[in-house]
C-alpha cells in the first residue's frame, strides 16, 4: 500500500514523528505512524529514538569550551560529518558551503533552548529538506568508521565526509569550509558485516573509504582501542541534528553484553549522533560507536503553553543508548588488510 512512497520521504516523515517528537507534515502527514513504521521495517531499516539523560544536558562545543583535555581535541579533529551532496554548494573560488536552516527556527524550539542560534545542516530533496546527516570517525588515513543505517540512507547518492564543521564561539556558523576538508566517499563500503541488520544490532556498522586522504594536520595513526567495563566514564563526539560538532561527556557505561558485542551508556545524544565514536574518559581509548538511543521518546517534546518544543530528557528508568563494541570494528579492519 505504501510502496509508492520513496525512502527519502518516508525517512523524513518518520524522522519528524519518532526521532524528533514533532507532528507529521507533508503529503503523508495523515497516514498512521504505525503503518509508516511497518513499511520502514519491511524495507530493512531500523528505527531509533534519541534523548538526553538526567538533570544536565552535557553537550558542549569542544573547541571553545574551557578545560577540554588534549586527548578529546585530538579525537575531535578526526570526527567528520557525513551528508549527501545536496547539502553542499561548491563555490567558484574553491570553497564548499553547507546548506542550512537556523536550528531553533527549523525545529520550532523554545527561545531558551541550547544552541538555538547555531545552524542545522540539511539536504535539499525534491524542493524540500531531507536528512540532517550522521557522524563518522577517521580510523586511518582514508578509512571512516560509522553505522550502517546512516550510510543506508545515502547509498543511492554521492556522499561526503566534512571535517572541521565545528563552532569556535556560541552562535558561530562555520558553514564555509576549504575544499580540502570536504571529501567524497567511495561509492561502495570498504567493509561491512554480512548478516541481517534487522535482527542483529552488532551488524549495524560500516567502514567507508575516502576518495582521497583526510586533510593534512590530522593525526592519522591507528587509535588505541579496548573493551569497556560497567561504570567506566565515557564521552562521544558527533553532529546531533546537523549542528556543528558537539562533545557529550559526563556519562558512564551502564551495562555490557559481551555475547551481543553491545553496551549501553547514558550519553546525551540526538538524531545525527548515529555513528558517533565513544571513548573512555579515563584514557581516551576508542570503545565503540553509538547505534541507537533509548527507545520510547523523541529528541523534542511539545510545550503547548509556549507553542514551541524543547529537548526531551530521561530522569528515571535510564537504560541508555545501544553502542557497538569496538571488537567488531577490529574484526572488520583485519578483513581489509
Looking at this protein, list some descriptive labels.
6 helices, single chain, 24 strands, 337 residues, alpha+beta, 6-stranded antiparallel barrel, 6-stranded antiparallel sheet, globular
Percent range for helical residues?
10-25%
Tell how many strands the DSSP assignment holds. Answer: 24
Unreliable runs:
46-52
Could you state the order of secondary-structure elements as H and E?
A: HHEEHEEEEHEEEEEHEEEEEEEEEEEEEH
Characterize the overall form: globular
Largest sheet: 6 strands, antiparallel, barrel
User: Radius of gyration, Cα only, in angstroms?
Assistant: 19 Å
Count of helical regions: 6
Biggest sheet strand line-up = 16-17-18-24-20-19
Measured between the Cα atoms of the first and last residue, the distance is 45 Å
Question: Which helices and strands occur, and which strands form pairs?
Answer:
Layout (H helix, E strand, L loop, with lengths): L6 H13 L13 H10 L9 E2 L5 E2 L9 H9 E6 L3 E3 L4 E4 L1 E3 H4 L12 E3 L2 E2 L2 E2 L4 E7 L2 E4 L1 H5 L6 E5 L12 E3 L3 E3 L21 E4 L23 E6 L7 E12 L4 E4 L11 E4 L5 E7 L7 E4 L4 E4 L1 E2 L6 E5 H11 L1
Parallel strand pairs: 1-23
Antiparallel strand pairs: 2-17, 3-10, 3-12, 4-5, 5-13, 6-7, 8-9, 10-11, 11-15, 12-14, 16-17, 16-19, 17-18, 18-24, 19-20, 20-24, 21-22
Helix pairs in contact: 1-2
Amino acid at each position: 500500500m505504501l510502496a509508492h512512497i520513496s525512502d527519502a520521504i518516508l525517512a523524513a516523515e518518520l524522522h519528524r514523528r519518532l526521532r524528533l517528537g514533532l507532528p507529521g507534515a507533508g503529503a503523508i502527514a495523515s497516514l498512521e505512524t504505525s503503518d509508516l513504521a511497518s513499511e520502514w521495517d519491511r524495507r530493512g531499516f531500523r528505527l531509533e529514538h534519541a534523548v538526553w539523560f538526567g538533570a544536565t544536558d552535557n553537550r558542549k562545543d569542544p573547541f571553545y569550551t574551557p578545560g577540554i583535555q588534549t586527548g578529546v581535541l585530538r579525537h575531535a579533529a578526526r570526527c567528520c560529518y557525513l551528508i549527501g551532496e545536496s547539502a553542499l554548494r561548491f563555490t567558484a573560488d574553491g570553497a564548499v558551503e553547507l546548506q542550512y536552516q537556523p536550528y531553533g527556527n527549523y525545529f520550532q524550539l523554545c527561545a531558551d533552548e541550547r544552541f538555538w542560534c547555531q545552524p542545522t545542516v540539511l539536504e535539499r530533496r525534491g524542493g524540500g529538506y531531507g536528512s540532517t546527516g550522521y557522524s563518522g570517525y577517521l580510523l586511518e588515513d582514508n578509512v571512516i568508521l560509522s553505522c550502517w543505517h546512516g550510510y543506508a540512507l545515502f547509498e543511492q547518492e554521492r556522499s561526503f565526509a566534512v571535517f572541521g564543521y565545528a563552532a569556535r564561539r556560541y552562535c558561530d556558523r562555520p558553514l564555509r569550509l576549504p575544499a580540502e576538508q570536504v571529501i567524497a566517499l567511495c561509492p561502495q563500503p570498504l567493509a561491512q558485516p554480512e548478516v541481517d541488520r534487522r535482527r542483529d544490532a552488532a551488524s549495524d556498522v560500516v567502514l567507508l573509504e575516502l576518495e582521497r586522504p583526510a586533510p593534512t594536520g590530522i593525526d592519522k595513526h591507528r587509535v588505541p582501542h579496548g573493551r569497556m567495563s560497567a561504570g567506566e566514564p565515557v564521552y562521544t563526539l558527533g553532529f546531533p541534528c546537523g549542528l556543528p560538532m558537539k562533545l557529550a561527556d559526563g556519562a558512564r557505561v551502564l551495562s555490557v553484553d559481551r555475547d551481543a558485542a553491545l553496551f549501553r551508556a547514558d550519553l546525551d545524544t540526538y538524531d545525527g549522533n548515529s555513528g558517533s565514536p565513544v571513548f573512555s574518559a579515563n584514557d581516551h581509548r576508542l570503545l565503540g560507536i553509538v547505534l541507537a538511543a533509548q527507545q520510547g521518546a523523541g529528541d523534542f517534546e511539545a510545550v503547548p503553553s509556549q507553542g514551541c518544543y524543547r529537548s526531551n530528557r530521561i530522569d528515571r528508568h535510564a537504560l541508555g543508548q545501544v553502542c557497538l563494541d569496538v571488537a567488531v570494528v577490529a574484526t572488520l579492519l583485519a578483513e581489509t588488510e
